[in-house]
Amino acid sequence: MAGFAGAVCVALVALVVLTLAGSGVGSAPTAVQLVVTRDFGSRVLHRAGPLKAGEGETVMRLLRDHDAVDVISGGRIVQGIDGLSSHEEAGEPLDWFYYVNGVEAPRGAVATSVHPGDHVWWDLHDWSQAEKIPAVVGSYPEPFLNGIEGKRLPVRIECAAASPSACSTVIARLRALGVPAAVAAIGSGGAPETLRVMVGPWGGLEASLAQSLERGPRASGVYARFSANGGALSLLDQNGQTVQTLSAGSGLIAATQQAKEAPVWVITGTDIAGVERAADALDRSTLQDRFAVAIAAGGAIALPERSGTL
Questions:
Q1: Where in the sequence is the domain holding 282, given as residue range(s)?
Q2: CA 275 vs CA 23, 200, 204, 279, 295: distances in Å
Q3: H helices within 177-307, ranges in order?
């Protein structure tokens, strides 16, 4: 098995080298995008762009320029946007959160700069099951194009030996965007400032990442959970309750972030067919405005799944 894994990695590296030779690394786009949604992206309230970031632009200033904003705490915290304020719904708290290039910002909006190419996303959602959702997929192709806080980060695609076809698809999708990416086996070692994309069946993912996702949204921010053997994928609602369970041939595209590291994307599934289905779904139209996506035979399912209380 080790020999096979090595052969797969060599073949994939060769593919990347050939692709790099055939097309130069593209420059990242510089237009800024602003989107305002609610309920984990399920309802788009306002979309603006392409925009240009002015000198000294901040997330708060960008929002104020395009939406009516209510603030508290001396103007540091957004309480409401366009008349929709933080509140309780069905006994659960809803507040405004924002993401830049698919990453939850570590600072308030008045202290976060907007850089060329940034995708700024505000969402009003229930945080009772996850006080922190560190990374989302709905800003794709960010953060691969413009990185984090104005710094474009290296990208590493980590491939399970069992999924060479899915890995080749992911490489091709990122290369088509002009994103250079190294290729390695899953679990190749830490890289705090590298965006990692893990491609492979659930049972073949890095142990620490799998354990984080297994603990549910409170630990990972992902509203899905695999069974112990990886053969079933439970889709959760905003209350952390299972809405439906997918079996063979089902995939998942999600992002999370571990302490002091860049985000990690997972393109995984219940089996090889599920991973390939997830890899095929790695595109802007499927991921736009979604926190994470499950892939079933009938198509993509936004996560968390909507329950009757939304």
A1: 2-25+140-303
A2: 27, 6, 11, 6, 9
A3: 207-214, 217-220, 272-280, 284-287
* Helix, strand, or coil (residue 275): helix
Same domain, 17 and 144: yes
Dihedral pair phi/psi, residue 182, rounded to 5° = -80, 160
> What would the DSSP string read from start to end of 48-76?
EEEE-PPTT-BHHHHHHHHS-EEEETTTT
Q: Distance between CA atoms of 193 and 191, rounded to whole angstroms?
A: 6
Alpha helices in the chain (DSSP H): 2-22, 59-66, 164-176, 207-214, 217-220, 272-280, 284-287
Among 100, 84, 89, 204, residue whose Cα is nearest residue 149: 100
For residue 70, the cross-strand partners are 80
Place of tokens 């890995």: 167
Q: Measured between alpha carbons, how far is 114 from 52 in angstroms, rounded to an integer?
A: 10
Residue 134 neighbours by CB distance under 10 Å: 21
Q: Domain holding 111: CATH number?
A: 2.170.130.30
What confidence tier does 8 reach under pLDDT thresholds 50, 70, 90?
A: very low
**19-33 pLDDT tens trace:** 333 334 456 778 999
CA 174 to chain centre: 14
244 and 160 share a domain? Answer: yes
Q: For helices 272-280 and 164-176, what crossing angle results, to 10°?
A: 10
Contact between residue 252 and residue 268 where contact means Cβ atoms under 8 Å apart: yes
Confidence of residue 76 (pLDDT cuts 50, 70, 90): confident
What would the two tokens of residue 183 be?
């290729």
- Using DSSP, state whether 98 is helix, strand or coil: strand
pLDDT tens sequence across 258-295: 878 899 999 999 999 999 999 999 999 999 999 999 99
**Is residue 219 domain-resident?**
yes
CB atoms within 10 A of CB 107: 11
Please provide the size of the chain in residues: 310
